[in-house]
Fold this sequence. Notes:
Largest sheet: 8 strands, mixed
Distance between the termini: 28 Å
Oligomer: single chain
Shape: globular
Number of helices: 9
Amino acid sequence: MEQQIQFDNPMGESLSGTLHQPERPPVGAVIAGHCFTCSRHTGVLRHICTALCEAGFMALRFDFSGNGQSQGRFEQSTWSKQVLEMEAAIALIQEKGAPWIGLAGHSLGAAIALLTARRIKTVSAVCRVAGRVSATRPMHFLTSSQQQALEQSGQVEFYSRERKLRLSKDFFVDADRHDLMDATRLLTIPMLVVHGDRDEIIPVAEAHLAKTANPRMVELAIVAGGDHMLAQPDHQRQVARTVTGWFCRQAGAPAPGDLSRQQRHRP
């Protein structure tokens, strides 16, 4: 059910992905992007993609360039580059004949999924997990010494997940070009916003802001006790069930429970 694949971004860098293939012809496909310094193996993404596959979806989780097993340098990351990489993933899924396409993302991946969904008209629904819609200027999250280093050298260093990483000024300039609140307001396809009410990095208020910005298109799912990574296995299973059921409704496919009942009553 899982296949390790590689595909190229527009810069010719090889991206690594895990493709979940259902045993029957897929009812659709969902592409999932990870958080800022994570990889496609983040627990919540693995649970979501596994559950989607069991419900009949093709699901692809992949590493953005400079992360996980993908080629590229982390310091060359920008939001716009990651949008292009998600678009490359969409093209790959389209080549495989997916009849319906949805996007999902966690944290920064949620921002990339939203921005990509606004650009690609073949995307029919988007799910954002633990994402931010306001206060999205990354420069504001740097210390004064980091801001000074960025101004003087054009780069800033930091540690994350036991890695010493570097970002260039291009990352910050590019991020400032994107307005997630505006993208939410103008969204014309359904969006599910999933958020833990104990998120220690991005407050749950961000989920409610998204709902207020576009009440007609946005549906909320708040995870009681959930932190930013939704690290508890029970929370990951809950999110996977919620996201899968929602994508089933958007694609017009039976939810896993409905499918089981149909099979039990089949003559």
